[in-house]
Amino acid sequence: MLRRLAVVAPAVAAMMVVVLLVEPPALRPAERIPTLRVFTTSVVAALAPSDVKQAIALGVAGEPPLYSLVPVDESGTRTSDLAAGAVYTPFLRVAWASYRRARSGQPLRLEEVPAWMTAPVAYVALRTPEAKSEENGTSASLAVVPPNFVTCCQEPQPSLAIPVWVVDDTAPLWRFGAPPPFNSSTMVAAYPLATLDTGVHFVAYKRLETPAGLTSIEVRGWVDPDDIDAWR
After folding, report:
1. Domain range summary for the chain, segments of one domain joined by +
2. Residue 198 CA: distances (Å) to CA of 52, 106, 134, 183, 204
3. Is the pLDDT of residue 24 over 50?
4. Cβ-based neighbour number of residue 129 at 10 Å
5. What is the pLDDT averaged over residues 12-24?
6. What is the mean pLDDT of residues 5-13?
7. Is residue 2 over pLDDT 70?
8. DSSP string, 109-171
9. Given CB 3.0 to 4.6 Å as the disulfide criterion, which of 10, 32, 95, 163 pairs with 189?
10. What is the separation of C-alpha 86 from the centre of its chain, rounded to a whole number of angstroms?
11. Is the pTM of this model over 0.90?
12. pLDDT given at position 11
């Protein structure tokens, strides 16, 4: 399903439902960084009504699954059993909203689903790296980079894709009813859905000043091709 969707900017809904508030804010000016390459595809419609109905049914049936980013190093080697991040596709956002509404006794109806929720953008939630107590550095930032591309220490950091918006909290997830996927600090950004299908690394990083010079600590995640084939 994901391979059939392409890039459009999410529209802000005119109608809200109980667990759905508003589309998150626009990209911060500080995040408008030069790109190595821009993803461009033809514009198509958002999630089809038939798919929205299936997502609603999934939420009624039970808690939706977690779509995880595999934690990797620069070379793409897995580094941990803990997910580096979580991905929320349009289908999964609708499923979560349906799940919350079903639990409240007010099932979500097709006509209540706002356009921003079904737009072909992926919400990507990434753990943020934690510096040691004696280390001082910048706040966390996000980048989308190819394998073997470091995040230290060009300024501004090159990125393959610029997010539609990015925030340093999990408020966007609550807007469609999903709980924070991690106990640790998390950043959430919206990327063109086509970005998931390119084998790139999503990286949350911080720059640190050390006696040896400037360095970067990061949390890096990758979408396994087998996973994206199964995701909706």
Report:
1. 2-230
2. 25, 38, 37, 28, 18
3. no
4. 19
5. 37
6. 32
7. no
8. PGGG--HHHHSSEEEEEEEPP---TT--BPPPEEEEE-TT---SS-SSPPBS---SEEESSSH
9. 163
10. 7
11. no
12. 29
The answer to whether 67 and 92 have CB atoms below 8 angstroms apart is yes
Tokens at 48, concatenated: 């089809």
Q: Which amino acid is at 190?
A: A
142 pLDDT higher than 90:
yes
Around Cβ 94, how many Cβ atoms within 10 Å?
31
**Residue 188, both tokens:** 């959430």
Report whether 139 contacts 29 (CB < 8 A): no
Nearest to 157 by CA among 66, 34, 42: 34
Exposed, middle or buried, 81 (CB in 10 Å: 0-12/13-18/19+)?
exposed
Output the six-digit token pair for 201: 């690394």
Averaged pLDDT of the chain: 81
Going from the C-alpha of 229 to that of each of 134, 188, 232, the distances in angstroms are 43, 23, 8
Q: Which residues of 190-201 are buried (b: 16+ CB within 10 A; e: fewer)?
A: bbbbbbbbeebb
What is the number of residues in the chain? 232
Give the position of tokens 């989308």.
144
